[in-house]
Design a protein that fits this description.
Elements: H1 3-9, H2 16-26, H3 28-48, H4 55-99
Helix pairs in contact: 1-2, 3-4
Length: about 100
């Protein structure tokens, strides 16, 4: 079991989804990089498995898929950052409300 898996499985309380969610929040770049690399590698292998297409067309498709996957990864990073900031803001508001 790797160090990341240990931190997920040994989390204190909470559901599995909440433990995984907190791990993803703590390791955003690893999560996004893994998603990006896996998707891009799958796309390239899929394109190379088409024997009836020319190599130039395969490379064109690979480039377009790479651009799409990169945009999805950036959108995912932005969404995770938005969720983090919203959660921090909610915690600040709750702390301020308890003080009064």
């Amino acid at each position: 079991m790797s160090r990341g898996e240990e931190s997920i499985s040994s989390g204190s309380g909470g559901s599995t989804v909440s433990r995984v969610s907190s791990w993803v929040r703590e390791n955003k770049l690893k999560t996004i990089g893994t998603f990006w690399g896996t998707t891009l590698g799958s796309s390239i292998l899929w394109n190379l498995s088409k024997p009836h297409e020319k190599l130039s067309l395969k490379l064109l498709h690979a480039r377009v898929h790479a651009q799409g996957v990169t945009l999805m990864a950036l959108a995912g990073a932005g969404f995770l950052e938005y969720l983090d900031r919203r959660e921090k803001n909610n915690l600040k508001l709750a702390a301020a409300a308890q003080k009064h």
